[in-house]
């Protein structure tokens, strides 16, 4: 079973690329939160609904670097959405006892918003 923060973060991005979060769902804490540029989510249902929506609009996802310790993982990646040029994104995933408790994401959304206008 995938239990280290780094392996859970890798699973998160693998599921995103496959646009199927079935394997990720068991690794979400009942009180997990997501905070990002396009919104916030509380709990696994909202978390997965938001991530599924992002995945549906994703054209490309290229992980550049992942750094982790005992509870936290920072993943730096390029995200292509809606025909916009790839945008650099930082994703901070916090894991406790093998469960994602929080994900915080930041990036400059201007290219993505301009492409969707």
Automatic annotation (TrEMBL):
Pfam (any one): SnoaL_2
InterPro entries: NTF2-like_dom_sf (IPR032710), SnoaL-like (IPR037401)
Record domain SnoaL-like: where: 12-102
SUPFAM superfamilies linked: NTF2-like (SSF54427)
Official protein name in the record: SnoaL-like domain-containing protein
Species for this entry: Gordonia malaquae NBRC 108250
């Amino acid at each position: 079973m995938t239990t280290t923060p780094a392996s859970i973060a890798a699973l998160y991005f693998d599921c995103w690329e496959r646009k199927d979060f079935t394997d990720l769902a068991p690794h979400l804490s009942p009180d997990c939160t997501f905070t990002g540029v396009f919104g916030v989510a509380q709990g696994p249902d909202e978390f997965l609904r938001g991530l599924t929506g992002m995945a549906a609009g994703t054209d490309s996802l290229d992980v550049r670097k992942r750094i982790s310790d005992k509870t936290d993982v920072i993943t730096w990646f390029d995200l292509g959405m809606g025909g916009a040029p790839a945008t650099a994104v930082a994703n901070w995933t916090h894991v406790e006892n093998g469960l994602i408790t929080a994900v915080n994401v930041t990036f400059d959304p201007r290219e993505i918003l301009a492409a969707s206008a």
